[in-house]
Design goal:
The protein has 213 residues and is an alpha+beta fold. It has 7 helices and 12 strands. Strands 2, 5, 6, 7, 8 and 11 form a 6-stranded mixed β-sheet that branches. A two-stranded antiparallel ribbon has the order 1-12. A two-stranded antiparallel sheet has the order 3-4. The two termini are 29 Å apart.
């Protein structure tokens, strides 16, 4: 009988595809305020669930910064892709709005195939109604930062005492000129299956947990 073994490893850096959220800055007005309470929820999310790591949000109204206690209604628009096919989006929304009853989170699904291009096109065209952006890849993140579409989260990270070491070095990898513009909200488990008999026949050592791509 053939023997099959597997190796599992958490690769936060590799999980950047679809795994970080950034706070959107309103380029035409030059203003935006962060929903600090959202980053507080992030640290709780980081220690629960198989895939949830952290989340962050921003809105364009002053009431948003007090969303945990304010009675004024606040709507946060979250740009993402594949909402109907992604099981963890709705639980994240439910967890946040449970603690912030005055907040409504409206999702804007831009689709997966051309998500980054569509997002950059909308923002470059002057769209200023998006508050939270799901970032799909490093090139997309870099472009959003360079074009001034993302709001720095440094103050929120400090104010809410978020331990960025929980993200396994990812935050350091996406820091630009000392500023952090997004936080991971998901981690992926990468699994390798291999046939031990074939390795034995070839006299090759088995893969180890510290191997790289």
């Amino acid at each position: 009988m053939k023997r099959i073994s597997r190796i599992m490893s958490v690769a936060l850096a590799s999980a950047l595809a679809g795994s970080v959220l950034g706070a959107c800055s309103s380029a035409d007005t030059g203003t935006a305020t962060t929903a600090a309470a959202a980053t507080t929820a992030a640290t709780t999310a980081a220690t629960t669930g198989e895939t949830d790591a952290a989340t962050s949000a921003a809105t364009s109204g002053d009431a948003a910064t007090q969303s945990g206690t304010a009675s004024e209604p606040v709507t946060i628009k979250w740009a993402l892709w594949g909402f109907d096919a992604t099981t963890y989006y709705q639980p994240l929304i439910d967890a946040y709005t449970e603690d912030h009853s005055n907040v409504t989170i409206e999702t804007v699904d831009l689709g997966s195939t051309d998500y980054t291009a569509m997002l950059l096109t909308q923002l470059s065209g002057g769209a200023n109604d998006l508050d939270v952006l799901t970032i799909k890849d490093i090139p997309g993140y870099t472009n959003l930062v360079n074009q001034g579409h993302l709001l720095s989260l440094n103050d929120d990270i400090q104010a809410n005492q978020i331990d960025t070491s929980l993200y396994g070095g990812t935050v350091e990898q996406i820091t630009v000129d000392g500023q952090v513009y997004a936080l991971p909200f998901r981690s992926d488990f990468w699994v390798v299956y291999y046939n031990k008999d074939l390795f034995d026949q070839a006299g090759v050592a088995y893969p180890t947990n510290d191997m790289t791509l």
